[in-house]
Amino acid sequence: MRDAATSEQLTLTYRTAEQDSPMKKLKPAEVSDAVTSTPKYDIVADSDVLCFNGNVVLVPKRAILLVPKTVEARLKYVKGAKLMSWSEFYAVNRGWITTVEVSRKQAEGNDLIPEETRDMMQQSGNLVIATYKAGPISVLAPKIADGSTTQTDTP
User: Fold this and answer.
1) Cα 25 to the chain's mean position, in Å?
2) If you compute the radius of gyration of the chain from its CA atoms, what whole number of angstroms results?
3) Which residues are bridge partners to 41 per DSSP?
């Protein structure tokens, strides 16, 4: 059996532990506030709007590859439109939207979209959206061998 510690012994142990605490020697970190230092992100400014029949969807900028004159009016928000996910919106608007599946290298601008695909886009008469794994994705301008990029006409 062992003797129980007295109140004085416990108090002495507590005081010495408190005096030798490494937390007291620690200096406060000089880090800026994450909330105020994080740049503001505006999803609407970084997206294009597709609106038709009272429904609206946001797609990334540069995901729209081709806009025929007949659907230009559908690139503007109509007040009161219901926000939908891409898969829902595309399901009810397949008649005027065509998707082109691109690889990651094509989206980065490292590879060109094949010429037969570009010809198909021109002939379809539909709005053409670039997709990657069935979701809309931005497509950067193709890079030239010297490292610069070409200018493309995108909305």
Assistant:
1) 43
2) 29
3) none
CA atoms within 13 A on the CB side of 126: 16
| Predicted TM-score (pTM) of this structure | 0.68
Whether the CB-CB separation of 101 and 132 falls below 8 Å is answered with yes
Q: How are beta strands 97-101 and 82-83 bridged, if at all?
A: unpaired
Closest by CA to 92, choosing from 120, 50, 122, is 50
What are the tens digits of pLDDT across the range 11-69? 988 888 888 777 777 887 777 766 666 677 888 899 999 999 999 999 999 999 999 99
The token duo for 43 is 């999803």
Contact of 16 with 27, CB cutoff 8 Å: no
Q: List the one residue out of 126, 71, 60, 61 whose CA is nearest residue 99.
A: 126
* Alpha carbons 136 and 62: distance in angstroms, whole number: 10
